[in-house]
Amino acid sequence: MPRVICTAKMCEFGPHFEILQAAGFEVDTVPTEVDLRKEPHRVVEQVQGYDAVLAGAEIYSREVLQQLPDLKVISRYGVGFDAVDLAAADAQNIVVTITPGVNHHSVAEQAFALLMGIARMTRTQDRAVRSGEWERELTPRVWGSTIGIVGLGRIGQAVATRAIGMGMHVLAYDPFPNEEFAKT
User: Fold this and answer.
1) How large is the greatest C-alpha to C-alpha distance in the chain, in angstroms?
2) 59, 83 in Cβ contact below 8 A?
3) Fewer CB within 10 A of the terminal residue: the chain, N end or C end?
4) Do 121 and 82 fall into the same domain?
């Protein structure tokens, strides 16, 4: 029976696990108290003997992959290949995938939370209120300001859509423009 382990911190049993189990896979998770991002030396210990991993942000270096001879698939629980040595994975015939479309809205929301915090000086204002030293201060308006976005993939498009909704002017660059999105 093929074995799959989920190492992502947000790994929860759900339909994806049920689909794998119905297809004959044994599905396990890393104990919640184990954080492979903070304890990279434990990646091999946790993934050893599995055919596939639903990976979090932990590092799959050449050294780690060489110690996982049974591994055939690394499916990132999110997007981005930056935590996986792709050349080493390729050399070992390990397929590396991502799960596109699962977190671009969350990332865009976080980008806007940070943008608003900086524009409205939230941290500075909060500290001033807490210390009893707050004085009214004008902060820049986001409405009518201009935002520059480099890269209009899923995340960039989600940020641009929110920026337009906030009354911002959007300047964007993408080496592979999506003409359909540009028209909207």
Assistant:
1) 66
2) yes
3) N
4) no
pLDDT digits (tens, 9 = 90+) for 155-169: 999 999 999 999 999
Among 159, 155, 161, 179, which Cα is nearest to 80's?
155
If you search the block for the tokens 């915090």, which residue do you land on?
117
User: What are the backbone angles phi and psi of residue 140, rounded to the nearest 5°?
Assistant: -60, 145
Name beta bridge partners: 173.
150
pLDDT tens, position by position, 98-155: 988 778 898 999 999 999 999 999 998 899 999 999 888 788 899 999 999 999 999 9
Q: Please state the φ and ψ torsions of residue 74, each to the nearest 5 degrees.
A: -115, 115
Do residues 139 and 66 share a domain?
A: no
Structural domain of residue 91, as residue ranges? Answer: 3-97
Q: pTM for the full model?
A: 0.72
Could you give phi then psi for residue 124, rounded to 5 degrees? -65, -45
